[in-house]
Every structure is written in structure tokens, then in C-alpha cells.
Amino acid sequence: RKEFVDLYVNYVCNESIRKPFEDFMEGFLRGCPATKWKMFLPVELQIVLQGHTKVDWHLLEKNVTYTQYKRLDQTIRNFWTVFHKLPEENKKMFLGNISGISELLTALSSPPQHTFLHFRFSIVDPQEENPDEIYPFANTCSLILFLPR
Questions:
Q1: Mind listing the pLDDT tens digit for each residue in 15-46?
Q2: What is the domain partition of the chain in residue ranges?
Q3: According to the CATH classification, is domain 57-146 in 3.40.50.300?
Q4: Which among 50, 44, 146, 59 is positioned nearest to 102, based on CA atoms?
Q5: CA 91 to each of CA 11, 101, 129: distance values in angstroms, whole numbers, following the listed order
């Protein structure tokens, strides 16, 4: 049984993907020759390909502009309190939903830290008569989050 399991695991994890992986590697190395990658340490290469895993979300918060709101309004303070308590993946998903930044600007699931130095989005009060009856929504083309009071 052990031999069967070992052979099966080897087939699933190695043999069955050998040809597709070799094809991928050939194409990848055509565009990105291996000699260029040798200048990076493994940790540096991971950051280049994957982005920083730790993101300074306070830098993003500093760059937000407000319309019909002030930075110290209770709604805004509540928004940032809840945002900063979210798990990392949810913050990234939120940002992607507002702007498509993860895919559009970086093509990475973790945006590079420098992205937030220049990235701006706005939080706007939609000024609805009864704000309890609408949900927050975004205009991704204009990078606006409409956040009811």
C-alpha cells in the first residue's frame, strides 16, 4: 500500500504536470531569461513576483479624499476602524472591488507598497434622504466609494 500511495502521489504531483510545466517554463524563460533572475535572492524574487505580503494600510488611508465628509466625522472614523480590523485578504479584496488595483495596476494579489504612495480614491456621502436604506457602493471608473452616513 505504501508503494502504491508513493507512486500515486508522485504521479499526481510530478508526472501528470511535467509536460504542461515544461511548456510553461520554456515560454516563461523566453520572456524572462533565467540569467536575469539570478541577481535576486529568493526572498527578493518573491517580493518582485508576489508583492509585499505586509501592506501599510495607513498609507492608503492618508491618501483618501472626502466629499461631504471630514476626516474626523464619525462615519469615516467608524469606516477606518472596521477596515483596519479586517483580515489582510479582505482588505485586498475590498481594494480590488473599489479600484481593481490588484489586477489593474500590479497584476498581483498583493499590491506593491509604492502603489499606495500615489494611489488616491474618494469617499463620498451620497446624501440620500434615508441613508439606512442604501448600501455602500463604488464607482470603480472614478475610484469613488459612496458611503452613506
A1: 999 999 999 988 888 887 777 777 888 888 77
A2: 1-33, 57-146
A3: no
A4: 50
A5: 38, 12, 29
